[in-house]
Amino acid sequence: MSTVPKVKLSGGLEICRVLTGMWQVSGAHGPVDKAGAVEAMQTYVDAGLTTFDMADIYGPAEEIFGRFNSQLKSKSSERAMPALQGLTKYVPRPGPMDRKVVEKALQCSMTRMQVDSLDCVQFHWWDYRDKRYLDALGHLSDLQQEGLIRELSLTNFDTQRLEEITNKGIRISSNQVQYSLIDQRPAAKMEQFCLDNNIQLLTYGTLAGGLLTERYLGKAEPNTRAELYTASLSKYKNVIDTWGGWRLFQDLLVTLETIAKRHDCSVASVATRFVLDRPAVGGVIVGCRLGVAGAGQHISDSLRSCSPDLKLTAEDLAAIEAVTHRSRELMALIGDCGDEYRR
């Protein structure tokens, strides 16, 4: 098993700096083979990638994790098995946020994941005008104190709300936000606040759903549903359009390929390494279509991206900046982290 670097969250949980994302089994990326997905998880664990990110709204993601977790425990008597870290999300519909509602939701996640407590609950809220998110977080904080949750975290909260929550005395371990070479909004305000308050950023979209890879270098702009055949490809193609368009994106891919050749790695490894090196970033979430043939082929790229041997130089960063400074300012067009979900 490879040695994958870890980071410790404020509650003491150690997670891999490259996490395996399970949004891709939600159904928005095509049919899901549950049995195949469970089987595929072993490949990640064998590679040292033992941290999985999921949500209560990601279709069968928690169930898949639970089935694999159960299988892993049943084998523990045969040989020492590495511990899994399961980070899930609590994404409630608008409504009353009393303790019973919150606790019931967590119990459902625990049942599906086949665990007695939750490693990390990442809370998301759709409408800031509805202040009941503070009620929910208050109950989550209490449940954390009672041992039901190890780490209390957020998903797609902006800096203003992150500060508001922290000022209420609620300890937040991490905030999951979009962060990539084409979306560097966290650098504007979020990073510094997180550094000042011992909060890690867990990032997604770092490979733009697979667009930030050699596969799209020199390719014609994809626009049809057949070309943008997953929710990720469609979503991040829209981000590219807002950021600066396909021609500028091609310039970025050419630059990344040059850097990748210099370091004997892939474009994906360079893109991931760039975000891993950003201040306050604890880990990068790389999504995988578990159970789909060939879905684990990117494991070597993930391992290379977090290898101590891969170090982006000042020359590399200057070359990247020469392209990205020509892009539009997403902070002005979209707003702070997570604002894209509340427009």
From TrEMBL:
Record-annotated NADP-dependent oxidoreductase domain positions: 19-323
Protein name, per record: Uncharacterized oxidoreductase YccK-like
Species per Swiss-Prot/TrEMBL record: Scomber scombrus (Atlantic mackerel)
UniProt lineage: Eukaryota, Metazoa, Chordata, Craniata, Vertebrata
